[in-house]
Amino acid sequence: MADAERMLENKYDVVIVGSGVAGLYAALNLPRDIKILMVCKREKKLSNSSLAQGGVAAVLSFENDSYELHTEDTLIAGRRENDLEAVDVLVHEGPEDVRRIIEYGVEFDRDENGELVKTLEGGHCRRRIVHYKDTTGAEIVDKLIRAVDTLENVTFSENTMVCSASRAKSGFSVDLLTDNGYKTVYCSYMLMASGGIGRVYRYTTNPAVATGDGIRIAYDMGASIKNLSYVQFHPTAFNDAQGREQFLISEAVRGEGAYLLNNAHERFMSRYDERLELAPRDVVSRAIIMESRRTGSNNFYLDITYKPAEFVKNRFPGIYAGCLTHGVDITKDLIPIFPCQHYLMGGIEVDLNSRTTVPRLYAAGECSCTGVHGHNRLASNSLLEALVFGRRAALDIKRCIDTGFAEVSAQDTQKDFSGAPMPKGLRTEIRSIMQRAYFVIPDEGAIHEGKKRVEAILQRLKSGKFAVTHDYCEALSLATVAYIILKEVDK
Ligand SMILES: Cc1cc2nc3c(=O)[nH]c(=O)nc-3n(C[C@H](O)[C@H](O)[C@H](O)COP(=O)(O)OP(=O)(O)OC[C@H]3O[C@@H](n4cnc5c(N)ncnc54)[C@H](O)[C@@H]3O)c2cc1C
């Protein structure tokens, strides 16, 4: 039920934090006779999910593909640090979830015979990625939101930020900041589906909401956080030094044959990896940084101009239009690109049912660490992960409810959210530290110094009596996430 204006109640069975693919699909898989509150801190559609271009990887036919091949590609990309059981679940259960979202109305490109068109991306040995042009995420989010909006038992509240949460008897107390002010609600189960951490970097493909709030809140409640330093840098974001959010040039562009060129307009990947442009993301990002050191230039390009203009415009309408706004016609011009932060493989540690180490607290999607991605995510495996483990969280909560559960009891407490304004410049400082210390090739000295400084910022934010604003909560998240990452990699 879409109703941001409606007054929130005091008590829910489940609070879902986030309206990306993980949160939406979880809501659809929860029982219809329980009360669910779904919150997102800005507009419903502002999420990493909505920006996904490339598609969803899944073995949907066995003609030329197999679960074993998808598994092997996932393990190669992940440097074999993946959790094998989690990969098994992802690869075997994922196709059914893709079919189910098609039943919810999600469209994927089809050929003239009505068959799904599958594309290739870096690290995949087969064409197995289904997509809706180059706006797959927006298509999925749109259709899942429509489905959730029909559910009478779900209250969907936009512009509602979870500032903090704490453990209460048989559940959680959750502090929300809404357009109408502060509100504390109680819930028996909580699902973090709060997405990534991109905004801890100066340059990222992630939108403004990706500040790692869910990870900070879970960490503060004592949840185990795993492999937070496993950050993925996408090799080909549009090189726009003026902007913070970098427009992604999907890997599918290389999948369809685009060349990667250096400042002299020469292909250079053969110097670094025999898979050339289709090597996994971490390999390509590293190659670009090595090549920039070799040539002394940060100018790199993608070239798809040799493909027919009509094909390019039809296959990549979003990228074509996005680049045009920067004055680049990709059917005729080289696309300036450079690596930037893109994705987080680590996060809140969960088991195969998306349970965190805190009872009744679940996590799914990018904020969680299921272990499926190992050290480096294979392209188009994350939407799949959000679907599979969002559903698994929902089914586990249902099982718990079915076996009889103690409900949380709401309390009537008055909390004080007032205080001094937060000092300016701290968020910018954290972003600069992370960009310098822990980008594609880590800088050990900057990591050590950066960790000390970020720790001091975190202490200052926690010990000062600052007003609990949107800005303050996000700064706290950025500092917490940066601190955990730098502590993990400081030797
Ligand atoms: C540009 C881009 C392209 C991508 N392309 C692909 C692709 O082709 N294929 C693929 O598999 N993956 C792709 N990814 C990755 C994939 O989109 C994400 O990993 C995945 O969608 C994450 O989904 P999620 O539901 O976990 O989080 P998100 O979709 O990021 O949703 C997070 C939600 O949490 C909410 N939230 C956060 N903090 C709070 C808070 N404190 N209070 C309330 N709400 C909060 C946000 O408002 C948002 O609604 C891409 C990512 C980007 C950025």
Q: Could you characterize the architecture of this molecule?
A:
With 491 residues, the chain is of the alpha/beta class. It folds into 3 domains: 11-230 and 345-402, FAD/NAD(P)-binding domain (3-Layer(bba) Sandwich); 236-339, Flavocytochrome C3, Chain A, domain 1, CATH 3.90.700; 426-489, no CATH class. The protein contains 14 helices and 17 strands. The protein has helices spanning 21-29, 48-51, 67-77, 84-103, 136-149, 213-220, 251-255, 281-295, 309-315, 317-325, 382-402, 426-437, 444-463, 470-489; strands at residues 11-17, 36-39, 56-57, 118-119, 129-130, 154-157, 161-168, 171-178, 181-192, 225-226, 231-238, 259-261, 300-303, 335-344, 347-349, 361-363, 368-369. Strands 1, 2, 6, 7, 8, 9 and 16 form a 7-stranded mixed β-sheet that branches. It has a 4-stranded antiparallel β-sheet with strand order 11-14-13-12, with helices on one face. Strand 1, helix 1 (21-29) and strand 2 form a beta-alpha-beta unit. The mean pLDDT is 95. The protein binds flavin-adenine dinucleotide.
Query: Quick one: how many beta strands?
Result: 17
Overall mean confidence score, pLDDT: 95
What's the CATH topology name of the largest domain? FAD/NAD(P)-binding domain
Question: What is the CA-atom radius of gyration, in angstroms?
Answer: 22 Å
Q: What share of residues is helical?
A: 25-40%
CATH architecture of the largest domain: 3-Layer(bba) Sandwich
Structural class: alpha/beta
Q: What's the N-to-C terminus distance?
A: 50 Å
Assigned CATH class of the largest domain: Alpha Beta
Task: Figure out the total of helices.
Answer: 14
Overall body shape:
globular
Largest sheet: 7 strands, mixed
Q: Low-confidence parts lasting 5 or more residues at pLDDT below 50?
A: none
Overall tally of structural domains: 3
**Residue share in β-strands:** 15-25%
CATH superfamily annotation of the largest domain: FAD/NAD(P)-binding domain
